[in-house]
Specification:
The chain is mostly beta strands. 13% of the residues lie in helices and 42% in strands. It has a four-stranded antiparallel beta sheet with strand order 1-2-4-3, covered by helices on one side.
Amino acid sequence: MIKSYVLNLSHNDWSLRTHGIGEDKLKVVMSRRIPYNGKENVIGEIYAESDFLLKEIIKTMKRSRRVNEVNLIDIVKTKNDVRATIHVNVDLKGLNPFSR
């Protein structure tokens, strides 16, 4: 009889790299998700404190194994922050253990 076990989970997502950054400096909101053929088109908005932080989060997204492409749709710079609307194409295959 098994009395205990250890389970190790692995999660390789770009959002893990933003864990230490507060919402007052960086916020990413994915507003629309449209799945198709094992992929997903996502429309989102990034609210960043600076151009540098915006560029870094986009680079981080592009490095993810699941992200196929990241496109900037619009950028608005204000006195206090930078806001960008983005389109992200994500590969969903391999995420569901019951899918084939």
